[in-house]
Amino acid sequence: MSAFTLTGAEGIMKTFVAFVVFTSFCSFVLAAEESCFNDVVRACKTTNKMSQFPIACSAKYGGIEADQEYLQKYVNHHFIRSFEYLLMSTHYANYEKNRLGFEKLFRDLSDDTWDDAIELIQYITKRGGEMNFNLISEDIRSEELNGNNFELYELQSIAKAMDIEKKLATEAFQIHEDVCRKNDKFYDPEISHHMEEEFMPKHRDTIRKLAGYTTDLSNLLKGPDSSLALFFFDEYLLKQ
Amino acid sequence: MKTTVVALCVFLSCSIAIGSAVLQCEHKELDIPKEWKDMVDPCVHSMRGQIEEELKAAMQYMAMGAHFSKDTINRPGFAKMFFESASEERQHAIKLISYLLMRGELTSRVSELIKRNLAPKTTSWVTGVEALKDALKLEASVTKKIREVIKVCEDNPTKYNDYHLVDYLTGDFLDEQYHGQRDIAGKVSTLEKLMEKHGALGEFLFDKKLLE
């Protein structure tokens, strides 16, 4: 009788210990997932007035923390290009060049890159990130070493715009790759989707448009009436 | 002998073909009279400087917009106002550029007009009212710089008073500056009074008002 009771008590004890271990394990797992909630619970209980805002309640999730730097650089590149296009537009608007069509082409590119930069800042903050206006890539920084000239002839200026647009387009691809394919720490299809929706089609269309212009302009400039051709081409650009 | 002559002919024709380009990308030097260009150097120089000042102000407003867009700050009304101000400052710079172009300037050194590094100095503010106060100080400094451009263009070592430019800056630019400053000052006053008694609620309500 006593032997049975002892085994019974032992069994109950073991079951109880197992139950405690199991529930504490469950609550630990659940606690890790609900860290914003736990922070809030803790904050609501504390009587210390100097306690901080619950940090796990930011909008950050997925790859934004790791990828933020590249998005910030992308914004700054857009600002740089916006000002460069503005300079090219200014050059064509002076009385010596007097190409109002080319002025409009580069002014529109400047306005587009400016608006894209603002939109991207709003996107970064939507994902819980912040903006840093000091970061630019080494590649862009090294452009300054060769000296930047924005007072170019017509075909050269369209060629320069094409190179700028391709650089912006390729950088969008790199950001896309970074958050999806290249790393195994996180997978963020939202950032890559944003790149796909907001940037890639625009770049594709602009690059195609500029490529068409270089084709037409090269053919026009080969003929005997290159200056007349340029005049008409400029008028055509004004209507676009 | 014959092969040498043939080789020489081929070489000459090739070099001529390379020498005269197929694509006429450039045009000849123009000969345009210059008497109509009557802006003096000190005035042009200070106008060029003012273009960059306007763009620097635009980037400072951009930093304010970025700060108030953050989730930990969450003031979309302030953010909207500051992003709009940033684009407006850029439009001011474009207006100044257009004026210089009208007067026949900016035919050279266009590449030097805008520096690459226009990163703003301040990028975070404790409250909305602090940012608005900074905005007011920013506008006041831009106004002061426009006044300095006016001074240079009105009275300089060459003793040339550029009536039209001074009139344009006074009537157009200064007018907009003073109206803008009055608007921001009113906002600072309203918000500061709200914050005194109602703190975060005051800023929250004011932010929603800015969204309208």
From TrEMBL, chain A:
Q: Where is the signal peptide?
A: 1-31
Q: Does the keyword DNA repair apply?
A: no
Q: Which UniProt keywords apply?
A: Iron, Iron storage, Metal-binding, Signal
Give start and end of each Ferritin-like diiron domain.
Answer: 61-221
Similarity comment: family membership? Belongs to the ferritin family.
Q: What does this protein do?
A: Stores iron in a soluble, non-toxic, readily available form. Important for iron homeostasis. Iron is taken up in the ferrous form and deposited as ferric hydroxides after oxidation.
Protein name, entry field: Ferritin
Automatic annotation (TrEMBL), chain B:
Signal sequence coordinates: 1-21
Which residue ranges does the record assign to the Ferritin-like diiron domain? 37-195
Alphabetic keyword roster = Iron, Iron storage, Metal-binding, Oxidoreductase, Signal
Please state what the protein is called: Ferritin
Quote the EC number. Answer: 1.16.3.1
Known catalysed reaction(s)?
4 Fe(2+) + O2 + 4 H(+) = 4 Fe(3+) + 2 H2O
This chain's source organism reads: Molorchus minor
As for what it does, the entry says: Stores iron in a soluble, non-toxic, readily available form. Important for iron homeostasis. Iron is taken up in the ferrous form and deposited as ferric hydroxides after oxidation.
